[in-house]
């Protein structure tokens, strides 16, 4: 620094600075530094900066404050000098000093990559850890801000970020994972970021960074095996297909798509061999030799051929070998109906073809009983419907038998069953023969088999007597052992020759009669009991019993012949007669004789024994008429006879005169029952005591003894008194009494060793002897009164009610009848007068015991099980049973005792995973039932049937077993039947619907679900019924088969109307199954959907462009003639045909034109005239509208844009499209006519025919712009200048591109 001295001794200013630090990021105009200077004289200083670098600064001359004028850049110049000058205004020259500006760094530079781009090609087999490339970046800043750190900011695709890493200090990008050209990505974008260490910038600590993208291309190498595009797969080829018939095109590719090596195809050795071949170059598999499906089944056990297809690359891979892969093509040999149903005899698993069989059956077996020992199976080796066959019966005895089943599919066991038991009679025919005809249902192939049936003799005939009844006569009281007669029966069964035994019933008859069991001789067992006067005739039943217990009967009537063993007996002990004197007595004396009437033994003769008055009377010898000998004179008879003489009393009066000794008798207490008459007797008088004639004594009344006081008095009223006791003697004249409410109880099936009870009648008569007889018997059987099925009960003479143990069908059975009502009578054999018997009722209650085991009821032959739907504890079937016992005895429990699975591979024992409900339910009919349930989910791969053995047992241990079949069916056989009826109505008709479907398809119909298909409230409800059509052999009908059957003429004629009544509309199918979710499948579906969308969009765009262009082209052509069209009534401006634009005068140009509707304008050139005829196009105009309406088929009226098309029209969709187009095609001119107008003069134009035509547009009803032609015409007129005032603007179209 130079120091100048002043002449005036003044001091010069001093600049007090040498180096100034200024940061490069100070903005222009901002303070940079302060010039430090002073003057010892304290003069005012002025400041300056000079020199070439002064351009960076501005200085305030007054205060020395320096500001940035131009931005500093450390990286360009980090240290430079400036000349500082100051002046104190005294010293004439500036004081200067060179001051250095040290520019401090600011982080104003980002790192810069070197050697870019970093693109590289990397083989896909590059080892992990290899450096792919190195990123290098520099930063011009200083210090920490110049330090560069590297990171990977982004990798595309996003999931590849883990494949690469970068060294933060060196920038080496390293491969961290394996590459794969095919499965990962053939290209990667790696965005590398270089960031400095940060530093101040604009008073903020800033980090600067730069990014660069590296493109990594993966180079494919042959490291993958070929890949099949359509294998594994399944295909079907019919048997007997010709050689070279195409089977399947195998497609494979080289997954190394960057190499795409050609593929060669071959077939690996397979079994069976040499059936198919493959073209090496293109993979086409064809038939090499003809094959028969049934032969393959017989030899290899399967009609499925599994081909191992090998795909090999042409060149070697990275390992130096030819890459290849093998996959399976499963070829199912399709069935052709080339076989018929043949007959086999199957024993166990071994079956042999036969056409003759022999069986046995008992004669007169019930309808439906199968002929035994027949092991017939019919097999048609074809498949599905091709294996369906029909079975018919022919032969000499076809009317006696039937064959079951009548139809079959594939393989079916065949039985010959009884159809008419009456024809199957050993006694008529011992061997019978039928012929089974098996006929293929589709083709004319028939096989026959002869069945010889040996009829087994059964004891089916009962012994028969020559007569239904016999009448015999024997003397009463004859000797024991007297032979009545010998009656024998014959039996048509050979088994019963010499084995018939005889027996008399009821047991009560055996006290008097019996029969020798071996020869049928009837004899007297106790003649003393044979009293004709007691019982004159006996009725017995003679039973002839064969070796099987079958019984024939005849009725025996044994009449007792009278012997004169009875004495006549007077009907009355005393006959009283009263007659007036002077009249003759005429009294009939009657006696009876117990011997047979009207025989000498019973003839009675009457005599009068000698007595005091015997000479006064005579009696008829034969008729017993007692008459007096002449007129009676009371005074001439000493004794007056009145009433019944009881007795006499004697009295004497010692007086000697007649007057004084006459005695009269009176009774003081006669009770009104007795009278006494006096008569002279033996020097005295006798009083004859008699019963009043108007009164009858009754022993059964309370008065059995009468004490009478007899008074004897004379005329002098002298009296004598005596006591007389009259004892009434009993006469057997009252009938016996049968006890009321007599009831006994007996348990069924019990041994009846003694009487069940004893009837104890009563008789008030003193002398009586009661005997009891059975009059009739009826039983309560199943709630109905009817004759008892057997002679279970009888009544013995002593009144014992006994059970008859000789019943032909066994002991008393509650299950047959629960009550017996016996009508019996009690007889007093000593009755002398009046009725001798009385009838009564004996009620026998039969009590139930637990003597019946449960009986299973087969509701359906089998149950269908959908294995895919079986969950834990879900029901797979039901079992039903009844017990004929009552009360607690009929209750039962069920349990599963055995479980087997039967399939085509055999029968296998299963774990007991099926069980029955512990709670047994009972329906209104008294049937018990339970559900069969599964303890687990069932294996969905099992195809066959489960044989479930169920045991039903009651509390006392009586049990029965039955087998329930559960057929496993695939969900694919589900058929959905649609009904236009509510769910409730379908459920109500479900039994009848099932019955109709079963009859139509001959399959068992199992219904799993009934649900509504309707989703909207107002829509008519549609019900879907999910059903399976299954046969007993495990086969089922699928959708196609059910559809074919229900649509056949025969079925439709018979059942169509019935199904229609239930609302049936059709069937559909829903195939369910377990589907494996594969990502590749969804990717392919997505790609296909995307391609479809692109294709649709492209096609739509092209169609729209084409139509738009055609429309514009037509409009352009129309402009050529628009101006030339002149209408009389239109004064100015051209008409605008085909539009609804009004001209200036408000007229409709279309209506103003002379339109000839017969002219074809040709706008529908895409449709043939036949189509137009078919849809019935015609046109009409409505004078009040500005559009004309196209009618389709029928008139729609003239309402603008309101077109109605019948939904029943078979061409509905096409018609709607036509209607849509018609809305926009009204009023258009035919282009050919417009073109023609160019060459026409005005006269021709005035008469030019016009008509309504259709414009080629299908945009729908929505667009309001129907005048693109008008806009084009206006544009043309505008160009010509002929009608400058007539312009149209149509925002929907611009014709400038024409």
UniProtKB/TrEMBL annotation:
The keyword Cell inner membrane does not apply. Keywords: Calcium, Cell adhesion, Cell membrane, Disulfide bond, EGF-like domain, Membrane, Repeat, Signal, Transmembrane, Transmembrane helix. It is found in: Cell membrane. Pfam families: Cadherin (PF00028). The chain crosses the membrane at residues 1081-1105. Its main location: membrane. It comes from the Eukaryota. SMART domains: CA. GO terms for molecular function: beta-catenin binding; cadherin binding; calcium ion binding. GO terms for cellular component: adherens junction; catenin complex. Residues 1273-1298 are annotated as: Disordered. Residues 14-113, 114-228, 229-343, 353-465, 466-570, 571-635, 643-738, 738-856, 858-993 form the Cadherin domain. Residues 1284-1298 have a biased composition (Polar residues). It is a single-pass type I membrane protein. GO terms for biological process: adherens junction organization; calcium-dependent cell-cell adhesion via plasma membrane cell adhesion molecules; cell migration; cell morphogenesis; cell-cell adhesion mediated by cadherin; cell-cell junction assembly; homophilic cell adhesion via plasma membrane adhesion molecules. InterPro entries: Cadherin, Cadherin-like_dom, Cadherin-like_sf, Cadherin_CS. The keyword Oxidoreductase does not apply. This is Cadherin-related family member 2. It comes from Triplophysa tibetana.
